[in-house]
Amino acid sequence: MSNISTAYYPQSGSLVILGAGESGVGTAILGKEKGYDVFVSDKGLIADHYKEQLKAEGIAFEEGNHDESRILNAALVVKSPGIPETVPLVVSLKEKNIPVIAEIEFAAQYTAAKLICITGSNGKSTTTMLTYEMLKHGGLNVGLAGNIGKSFALQVARENFDCYVLEISSFMLDDMYHFRADIAVILNITPDHLDRYDHKMENYVDSKFRMIQNQTEKDYFIYCLDDPETIKGLERHHSKGTYLPFTQEQLVELGAYLTANKTMIINTPNNDTFTMRTEELSLQGKHNIYNSMASGLIAKVQELRNQAMKESMGSYVNIPHRLEHVACIGGINYVNDSKATNVNSVWYALESFSTPIVLLLGGVDKGNDYTMLADLVKDKVHAIVCLGKDTAAIHKAFEQDVEIIVNSTSMQDAVILSSHLAKKGDTVLLSPACASFDWFKNYEDRGDKFKAAVMEL
Fold first, then answer.
1. Annotation: binding site for ATP
2. Which pTM value belongs to this model?
3. What is the pLDDT of residue 5?
């Protein structure tokens, strides 16, 4: 049985994969197993371990170039989510009516596993990991894939899971058409990647809502009742599944809500009620209560026992680079939130702390509007250390609200500066609001260098 009930795509012939990262190589291996003539093309250089994998599988590939004549003769193309659809090669493929789809769309055809799909501008990695750990702890035979972990396609080829928890980005959703989520989750929608959506918020919202396309009456749609863009999107998009909202501002009969005494209540059809005091959650902060509510709703729909859920929610340790506690040195806590690559993520991070903060901010600015941070920065931040080249916007945004704003020349310099600016009881928080590509390879490299610099203090 397939998640995509009809074979909408050619099931043989030439399968071309654009991009030879984790998802591309996994797709190539699954494609080969399904009898396609597979060719992998990457305009950049392919990492050595992926090249070795392709060679071991006997799969043809090229790097540093696209053989357009070969690619334009494909029966089916699977492209990396990082390649925009405006790229001339993709435009040419679509003009020739050659299907261009995502790895998730391709691999879903070949599995009968239940697909639990999580998207959102912020919190999706944390919610995906918490859900995965909870379901695993509850005894389910569960895989983890999408924007996180091993390739979904490779796991469909080589593993035999009963369900998958998939972290799904809007870029992936843009290339998904017939895929169906058994459980679809939209955590929140805030401005991000708008350069890929003609700088129109509604286009980005529409992309996120592709998550619920093709849902049936048997499926579930979990969403935040307190998120304005999600609520606006609901006027244009509908699921046939059961709606399960989560909220900290209202009471709901079905879904998750918070009582006046800070108890999380979760009710799903035909299941007993789950209750847990928020102070017992291992992930603290308003945004993490939302993440826990979404994960809890998934777990209840999957009929996990309340005790197993409580154990997981009470002991879960957050993923690296997302509000990750690094060390306490001289009474100062150092926290790595390098994964915060947009302003909204920084808002969530600042909202989590009650201690005074020295904030490490900056990098490649994607046209950030810092005004939403103004009140939190005024209340909680007494110094900002700027990272990267684009520092003028940070100085301009916060010079009236923060006593000290200084530029740094490297991560090590930034950490040393912040250690002098912080007092006992303060938190030094790396939460950059920006991409990392000026000084670092990626946000992981930025976070690792922060941790290394802290440990050298």
1. 120-126
2. 0.78
3. 54
